[in-house]
Amino acid sequence: MQYSEIMVRYGELSTKGKNRKSFIDRLGSNVRKVLHDLPEVKIQANRDRLHVSLNGADSDQVVDRLKLVFGIQNFSPSVKVDRTFEATAEMAAQMVKEQLGTTKTFKVNTRRSDHQFPIDTNEMNTRLGEYLLEAFPELSVDVHQPDLVVRVEIRANGIFLSSQTIQGAGGLPVGTSGKGMLMLSGGIDSPVAGYLGMKRGVSMEMVHFFSPPYTSEQALAKAQELTGKLARYSGTIQFLQVPFTEIQETVKEKVPEGYLMTVQRRMMLRLTAALALKRHGLAIFNGESLGQVASQTMESMLAINDVTTLPILRPVVSLDKTEIIKIAEDIDTYQLSILPFEDCCTIFAPPSPKTKPNLERARVYESRLDVEGLMQRALDGVKIVEVHAGEEFLNQEADAFAELL
Ligand SMILES: Nc1ncnc2c1ncn2[C@@H]1O[C@H](COP(=O)(O)OP(=O)(O)OP(=O)(O)O)[C@@H](O)[C@H]1O
């Protein structure tokens, strides 16, 4: 069926009182962003609905992209017909016919926003219902739990019909909760944490630590490609790559093995906090889940958090690994995350890190370092890459590699 528009219903927005307008504006601009390469598509964000006029664009493609936009409760592809009963009935019959296989019962649900139109809501429901019963005698009407709802919306510029309601991504429009810095490794958990933060309206920047030559170009490309996956939910993301080699080498040289992990993590957090301050981030997100590995005990969090007063938000803190993996699969980051490119933490991980580090000791060991100098040099080396939705980095690497062979 050639649809004319997609009618979008807002999610939690309706509960947001006086912020409503800015939420709707933001959702409108987020939808515009994900459809930017389809210039024929026009978007109009009204108080209660958002209308995406397709003007000939492929509805399947638009539907697939809308499914990823946070702040949408659900949406319906609709067809516009002339403002007559005959045109409405003909199109409704065509829609029902397409779904006959799975439909035994139906109802008509009319909404009339143009009160000048001569047929009112009840009359349209009844007349159209009778017309469809006559056209499809095998069907019956069920107003409580119908298999199919034929929705008719009478507007000043036409009558819009739809029969499908597609589930949206829920959540809040990205950007309505401010900016956060996500500490993104190449693992399974931090991309999921990023996704969950975005779902609550956070516009996320990625902070990734890498340690060449100990970590490969592929490890960096993997983190960038994970960012591309996440950008499908939020539009373009700034990826901040922070050189971490000097810090890791120095920590390894000066700090006892049991505290290597703790001191490295304190340095990572300090750097992320410094970047947040510079770039107006309001909080730091990471992929820690309580009790999973050595650095993720509460004692360890206490010894690491010490370096900043910024809120540290851990969206996956209470999830089991299997639950995190399930989300990673759903958002299509899992297969990338399990690629075996080591990141900087695995390489410098001591065989037996302290699971319950002591805060005072961590401070003492750290005082052996020139924290200021190390921080400054790392910050001076930060490179920012703009990553677009679905952008691939690993494939390019593989191609380059293939060319060398
Ligand atoms: N190289 C890195 N760059 C940026 N952040 C990192 C890096 N390594 C670890 N982190 C952050 O620290 C958190 C804890 O890392 P750790 O390696 O202990 O846990 P993990 O459960 O393996 O997490 P993940 O699956 O996200 O790597 C990560 O979720 C991530 O937020």
TrEMBL record:
Reaction catalysed by this enzyme = [ThiS sulfur-carrier protein]-C-terminal Gly-Gly-AMP + S-sulfanyl-L-cysteinyl-[cysteine desulfurase] + AH2 = [ThiS sulfur-carrier protein]-C-terminal-Gly-aminoethanethioate + L-cysteinyl-[cysteine desulfurase] + A + AMP + 2 H(+); [ThiI sulfur-carrier protein]-S-sulfanyl-L-cysteine + a uridine in tRNA + 2 reduced [2Fe-2S]-[ferredoxin] + ATP + H(+) = [ThiI sulfur-carrier protein]-L-cysteine + a 4-thiouridine in tRNA + 2 oxidized [2Fe-2S]-[ferredoxin] + AMP + diphosphate
Q: Pathway, according to UniProt?
A: Cofactor biosynthesis; thiamine diphosphate biosynthesis
- List ligand-binding residues for ATP: M183, L184, H208, F209, R265, G287, Q296
The biological processes this protein is annotated with in GO are: thiamine biosynthetic process; thiamine diphosphate biosynthetic process; thiazole biosynthetic process; tRNA 4-thiouridine biosynthesis
Which InterPro entries does the record cross-reference, listed alphabetically? Rossmann-like_a/b/a_fold (IPR014729), ThiI_AANH (IPR020536), ThiI_fer (IPR054173), ThiI_N (IPR049961), THUMP_dom (IPR004114), THUMP_ThiI (IPR049962), tRNA_STrfase (IPR003720), tRNA_sulfurtransferase_ThiI (IPR050102)
Q: Which UniProt keywords apply?
A: ATP-binding, Cytoplasm, Nucleotide-binding, RNA-binding, Thiamine biosynthesis, Transferase, tRNA-binding
Enzyme Commission number(s) of this protein: 2.8.1.4
Q: Among its keywords, does the record have Iron?
A: no
Question: Can you name this protein?
Answer: Probable tRNA sulfurtransferase
Q: Which organism is it from?
A: Paucilactobacillus vaccinostercus DSM 20634
Q: Which gene encodes it?
A: thiI
